[in-house]
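User: quick one, fold this
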Amino acid sequence: MNTVAPAPTPVTRTLTWCLHLLVVGLLLLAGGRAVADGGPHAGWTVAVAAACALVYAAGPVLWGTALRGNRPSRRAAALWPAALGAVWLVLLALSADAVWVAFPLYFLQLHLLPRRAALAAVAATAAAAAAGFAAHRGSFGAAMAIGPALGAAVAVAVVWGYQALYRESEQRRRLIEELTATRADLDRAQHTAGVLAERERLAREIHDTLAQGFSSIQLLLRAAERALPDAPETAARHVDQARQAAVDNLAEARRLVAALAPPALEGTTLADALDRLCAATGARHRLAVRFRRTGGPAPLPTAYEVALLRVAQSALANTVRHAGATTAEVTLDRPRDHVVLRVADDGRGFDPGLLPAPDPENGGFGLAAMRARIDALGGDLTVASTPGQGTVLTARLPLTPPTGHGTEPVAAARTEPETEYKPEPETVTDPEARP
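Assistant:
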């Protein structure tokens, strides 16, 4: 059984003091009128009015802070109005002026008691007020009943209206708090997603630039080591090429720190950057690399140029390290509605279905990084290879990207960071490729 009454609606300090002053003023009125009129029960009237004031003053002290909205027990919530009502009935029997005290009693009962009990108490108080006033007048008229009833109706409307407004205010406050908390959670989630996306973007950039450059430097230094001491000129040439690769890597590192476009694309076109990449790769390694361009020279969005250049770098790095090829060809084609980058070599080839899974120690993230770049721009990347027959890697990007990939038409050059990198367990350009 529930022994706790519902928590009353909190009342502001101003309203509480107004109720206190109203009760005290009406009791003083009843006592003062009795003394002024010199009735036979003036002394008793003053004494009972003082007792009523004491009971009212003792209520907040003895039965908690009900007027301030705390949750009193059911007995405490009912005992105070009942005791006050009993003393008031005695006062009403002594003085007709006590009928006015019924009005603040309505508010007290409506605030402290449950709704049904409060309505019953208010009705009983109104009936007692009407009956007491009629007894003092020695007759009964409609006005005697209308006055207390109207006061009771006004009190009920005021209290219930205040409670409805308070509940609505509380509901809005909770909704605002929930909205604020939700927005804070959303901001944190967006911040976390942005941090992860930028971290993966930087990891992809480092893989396609610095890691590939370090691999090239390592191959050149090994070639120089094998040339010593029989061919010092060849070793010196390899060392010089490794030094140049280190210079290029340093430029890439500085550019990554500055979060700008690749230096290979500064002040030039993608075709020129790919031509220089092929020439540098052929000069540093025993590989004949040729660049060929078909289609028109219309400009591409910056995000497209960065993605295609990185794909070409990664694919050529795989060819140098693992394909054992003698020739390679990079082709940039511009059909009507898309752009195509194709990297082909005559190396040993491989079976795309027998690739080991990538791991942090041995690498193997090359194709996943390339595929993530192309997929993020709404394109597709395919690898065709057969053991002993070379490898062909093809990347296609639409010139009018599909909705939902966050890209723009070719006419609008882009400089924003690339989208999130999500590796996929697909094929790579070489069976041993773990760049």
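User: anything notable?
Assistant: Confidence is low (pLDDT under 50) at residues 1-5, 65-70, 402-435.
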